[in-house]
Amino acid sequence: MSLIFSSSFCTMRVLHILVVLMELSQVRTMSLYFGQALDSAEAFDEHSSYFEADILAGSVVTKMAVRDNHKLWDGGQVPYKLDFDPTSPDNVYVHDNIMAAIAAINAVGCVSIYEANMETDVVNIRLDVDYSSYVGRQGGVQNLTVSSDNSNIGTIMHELMHTLGFGHEHNRADRDDFIIIQWDNIKDEAKPYFQKYTEESGFTDHDISYDYESLMHATNQKNEDIFIDLNKPIITRLDGSTSVGQRSHLTEKDVERIIAAYSCGICEDAPDNTLFRYPGDCHKYYQCDQHHAVARICSADLHFHVEANYCDYPWLADCTEMS
Ligand SMILES: [Zn+2]
């Protein structure tokens, strides 16, 4: 499958401001963040109020997964380091939430976000006033910021999804078949966040159908920075209902999307997901293990018997069939 950002996209900066759909009892006002200088290509910024917007060099980037393999993390392995003292009493709560968010993503069993050792491509997790993340692997050290004031596990998961290479659901090219953006209730400065992806945006939906409840969908959480009238929604479904997005959990389709982007759900060439041939070496075979194809070696000099699909005596498992 192809997963990538278009090259023009790679050179652009993305600013992503988001309506964080947190169960906050207080409404926090904050200013939007357009045009903030960021070190490299695309970045998403999730503000700790309730709004989210993705702006890349003045245009909007939308959700789904990057189409460029170089934006994905090799083998789904994502090293991180903490740019703060997790033992400081002020940071214990937010640190716990970050660890819980990482655990929730890792629980999918497809990607692994782990404490960095000597890796060069690393996610540097910082505390800041707002949430932010780049979309996909940038190369080198890339920041992911978490609001220390409004720490929320689901919102941190949302950021980690951006880091893994996913954009927003409500920006999908086909979104008008599912939702109506209530432009009349959206402030001008927030409108870019609701634009649709185009082919040039560089995302793929992996043929996974629209997900109203995605962790990556914008919500109707009231936000003075976005809403003109706080008593009216900014997004409705075609049937008029207003339940969209959430910031608490990965939906089934969010999980499907991770599995599709990182190829965890498929062992290609293994129709029944069991054993299959290893090209050019009849002592070896592949086994599908946790959705990954893992090379194995037949014991006792046996050869892999392609037709029978197991290791057998060399004279029974004709090596020429492996060529
Ligand atoms: Zn976002």
Any chance you could write out the topology, listing elements then pairs?
Elements: H1 7-10, E1 14-19, E2 43-46, E3 51-56, E4 59-60, E5 64-66, E6 77-82, H2 92-106, E7 112-115, E8 122-128, E9 131-134, E10 141-147, H3 153-164, E11 166-167, E12 179-181, E13 203-204, E14 235-237, H4 252-261, E15 275-277, E16 284-289, E17 292-297, E18 303-305, E19 310-312
Helix pairs in contact: 2-3
Bound molecules: zinc ion.
Descriptive account of the structure:
This protein has helices at residues 7-10, 92-106, 153-164, 252-261; strands at 14-19, 43-46, 51-56, 59-60, 64-66, 77-82, 112-115, 122-128, 131-134, 141-147, 166-167, 179-181, 203-204, 235-237, 275-277, 284-289, 292-297, 303-305, 310-312. It is of the alpha+beta class and 323 residues long. It has 2 domains: 7-261, Collagenase (Catalytic Domain) (3-Layer(aba) Sandwich), CATH 3.40.390; 275-322, Antimicrobial Protein, Tachycitin, Chain A. It has a 6-stranded mixed β-sheet, with helices on one face. β18 (303-305) and β19 (310-312) form a beta hairpin. It starts with 6 loop residues before the first helix and ends in an 11-residue tail after the last strand. Mean pLDDT is 75; it is low at 1-64. The chain binds zinc ion. Residues 16, 18, 44, 46, 52, 158, 162, 168 line the site of zinc ion.
Helix content class: 10-25%
Query: CATH class of the largest domain, please?
Result: Alpha Beta
Beta strands, count: 19
* Beta-strand proportion: 15-25%
Q: CATH superfamily assignment of the largest domain?
A: Collagenase (Catalytic Domain)
Unreliably modeled segments: 1-64
What does the oligomeric state look like here? single chain
Taking the sheet with the most strands, its summary is: 6 strands, mixed
Taken from the alpha-carbon principal axes, the silhouette is: globular
Distance between the termini: 26 Å
Mind telling me which CATH architecture of the largest domain this is?
3-Layer(aba) Sandwich
For the record, the count of structural domains works out to: 2
Order of helices and strands: HEEEEEEHEEEEHEEEEHEEEEE
Number of helices, counting only DSSP H or I runs of 4 residues or more: 4
Structural class: alpha+beta
Predict the CATH topology of the largest domain: Collagenase (Catalytic Domain)
Strand order of the largest sheet: 2-9-10-8-6-7
Global mean pLDDT: 75
**Distinct bound molecules:** zinc ion
Pfam families: Astacin, CBM_14
Active site: 159
Signal peptide: 1-29
Domain Peptidase M12A: 64-265
